[in-house]
């Protein structure tokens, strides 16, 4: 039976560093308490784990710099979630009220801005200009990806080529940065670090495909958010695009008209049925699996003297996730 022993060790190592950023001392408390709240409510901490795991390919023991990088990655991820939840009008995040619902939108925006400032404080303290430059490149791409995601909502039809490029920017580049910068701090060559970046991209694409799938076909208790939210927002996910591109004109017209007259539950049920009928659900799972196979081969090709088990366990966990 596959266990996550190494990954559990890694999380224990990050626990103390996580507590440091959760405590969030400062005044006024109204801007720090929501930050502590979103950092406390869970998540898999995949991005900081990937940074440390990449570092451990080259070093046995962690140091201050890699812990600061892991903290920065986790804070930046949560910064993006604060703003994403506002843009998506999400009610739940990890099974809890989103910050803009529990407080208000202005507070959520300000808390996100403050988190971003704290990210730069962490990165600056590392003192590695190359990593800071890579972070800025990644953050720019992530914003571009978010804008493309929003633009897709106003288009009737999206190619899955365009969609995969968008999720590479919106989701995968942060995983790529986490692994590339972690490897650089560990002493990897630029060539090896670039391989880790590409591996992070592959993991990120597979991760997002599974996230899209679970948003529609997962269980609320496991996923921790409203099931069918992407359907109700008519988000052009790979799953949606694959279904839409296999529907005839009458089916498309029917779906468009239903949004104005049917309940949320009826819409979700109808779209799920169409996704199954067109094979979009299985196509999404198949593509995620294909990326997982490629990722496994890429990790095997990386020439590092350290322990690969940490990354192997992360990849295993993500490929078999139900939430």
Plain-language structure description:
The protein is mostly helical. The chain has a single domain (7-314), classed as Farnesyl Diphosphate Synthase (Orthogonal Bundle). It has helices at residues 5-23, 29-40, 46-55, 64-88, 99-102, 105-126, 129-152, 160-186, 190-217, 220-223, 229-232, 238-244, 249-258, 264-277, 280-301, 309-319, and strands spanning 92-93, 96-97. A hairpin with a 2-residue loop joins strand 1 (92-93) and strand 2. Helix 15 (280-301) packs antiparallel against helix 16 (309-319). The chain is globular, with a radius of gyration of 20 Å. The model has no long low-confidence stretch (mean pLDDT 92).
Second rung of CATH, namely the architecture: Orthogonal Bundle
Strand order of the largest sheet: 1-2
Q: Helices and strands: which structural class?
A: mainly alpha
Q: Could you report the average pLDDT, rounded to the nearest whole number?
A: 92
Query: Can you tell me the CATH class?
Result: Mainly Alpha
Question: How many H/I helical runs?
Answer: 16
Report the radius of gyration as a whole number of Å: 20 Å
CATH topology: Farnesyl Diphosphate Synthase
When the domains are counted, the total is 1
Kindly report how far apart the N and C termini lie: 20 Å
Number of strands: 2
What is the fourth-level CATH superfamily?
A: Farnesyl Diphosphate Synthase
Shape: globular
Main attributes of the structure:
mainly alpha, single chain, two-stranded antiparallel sheet, 323 residues, 2 strands, 75% helix, Farnesyl Diphosphate Synthase, globular
Task: Explain the layout of strands and helices.
Blueprint: H1 5-23, H2 29-40, H3 46-55, H4 64-88, E1 92-93, E2 96-97, H5 99-102, H6 105-126, H7 129-152, H8 160-186, H9 190-217, H10 220-223, H11 229-232, H12 238-244, H13 249-258, H14 264-277, H15 280-301, H16 309-319
Antiparallel strand pairs: 1-2
Helix pairs in contact: 1-2, 1-3, 1-4, 1-16, 2-6, 3-4, 3-8, 3-16, 4-6, 4-8, 7-8, 8-9, 9-15, 12-14, 12-15, 15-16
């Amino acid at each position: 039976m596959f266990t996550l022993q190494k990954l559990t060790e890694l999380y224990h190592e990050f626990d103390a560093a996580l507590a440091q950023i959760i405590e969030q001392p400062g005044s006024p408390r109204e801007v720090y308490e929501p930050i502590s709240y979103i950092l406390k409510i869970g998540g898999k901490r995949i991005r900081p784990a990937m940074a440390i795991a990449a570092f451990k390919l080259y070093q046995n023991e962690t140091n201050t710099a890699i812990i600061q990088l892991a903290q920065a990655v986790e804070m930046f991820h949560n910064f993006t979630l604060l703003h994403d939840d506002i843009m998506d009008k999400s009610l739940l995040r990890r099974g809890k009220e989103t910050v803009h619902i529990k407080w208000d939108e202005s507070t959520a925006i300000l808390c996100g801005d403050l988190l971003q400032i704290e990210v730069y404080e962490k990165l600056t303290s590392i003192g590695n200009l190359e990593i800071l430059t890579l972070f800025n490149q990644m953050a720019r791409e992530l914003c571009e990806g978010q804008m493309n995601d929003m633009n897709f909502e106003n288009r009737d039809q999206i190619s899955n080529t365009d969609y995969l490029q968008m999720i590479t920017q919106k989701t995968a580049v942060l995983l790529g940065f986490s692994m590339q910068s972690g490897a650089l701090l560990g002493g990897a060559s630029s060539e090896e670090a670039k391989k880790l970046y590409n591996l992070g991209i592959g993991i990120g694409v597979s991760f997002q495909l599974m996230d899209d799938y679970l948003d529609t076909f997962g269980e609320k208790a496991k996923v921790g958010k409203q099931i069918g939210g992407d359907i109700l927002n008519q988000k052009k996910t790979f799953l949606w695009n694959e279904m839409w591109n296999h529907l005839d004109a009458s089916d498309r017209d029917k779906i468009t008209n239903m949004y104005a007259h049917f309940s949320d539950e009826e819409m979700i049920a109808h779209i799920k049925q169409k996704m199954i009928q067109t094979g979009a659900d299985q196509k999404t799972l198949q593509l995620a699996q294909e990326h997982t196979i490629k990722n496994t081969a890429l990790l095997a090709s990386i020439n590092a003297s350290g322990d690969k088990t940490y990354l192997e366990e992360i990849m295993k966990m993500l490929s078999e996730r139900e939430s």
